[in-house]
Amino acid sequence: MITMTIKEAMMSSSLPRLEIRMLLEAVLNKPRTWLIAHDDEMLTEQQAQVFYIMVARRTAGVPMAYLLGTREFMGLTFCVSPHVLIPRPDTETVVNKAIEVVREHALTKVLDLGTGSGVIAISIAKACPNIQVDATDCSAEALGIAQLNAECLAVQVNWFHGDWYQALGVQAERYDLIVSNPPYIHRDDAHLAQGDLRFEPPQALTDGADGLSALKHIIEQAPNWLKPGGKLWVEHGYDQALQVQALFIKVGFNGVQTLKDLGEKPRATGGYLVTSA
Fold this sequence. Notes:
This protein is an alpha/beta fold. It has helices at residues 6-10, 17-28, 32-37, 45-59, 64-68, 92-105, 119-127, 140-152, 213-221, 241-251; strands at residues 70-73, 76-79, 109-113, 132-137, 158-161, 175-180, 226-235, 253-260, 266-273.
């Protein structure tokens, strides 16, 4: 039989104290202030067992977001699972730009390609009520997580299952703005075998090639799905800015620019189609 107090649990592992506290908060479903005030209380045997399992998984490298089942993004709490990428602050770059563009130009129809947990589509819909937001993903499991997040955060998004634009089927609808955070890591990138990336869905991280194939497809096909003057913004690797800019320009986008993320690395590139005369 496993017996321990909250205080003993806090001292039972070499994990960072913050992580131990977060795991205990999840196991006990109590806030930090409660843990501090009741650190002499005993965990039940079941609670202690669950805590030890979570500590062991975290020690093995399992991401905290997957252990806790949630991650904050844009000030909102999103459910996550191993079926979706863990939301990262870098992606806030493209989301903030999308929200800015929607508001500045009073846009009404937005498409998010490869939505994953839905953080981009939902964040835009939350910040810009009364617009139409559509989102696609090839993973049914990912769309299930995205739908759950939309319900929990009380926003309306239209979900489409399938690859990129193909998920939308044959339809005449065109969009004011398309956004995407596609897989852009090179298949041989050493980072895929390091840290949290080891546990995240590979198909959401890399295209299995040079990291540019998904970006190329999204950019090249965008004119078929954008209204005249429509805008496209994509997230990409810190070392891909020049290549992505070249793809935009080749397809015929104007005003191509790249924005830096919080770490001052080139992270998102966008442009607009010239309005037909």
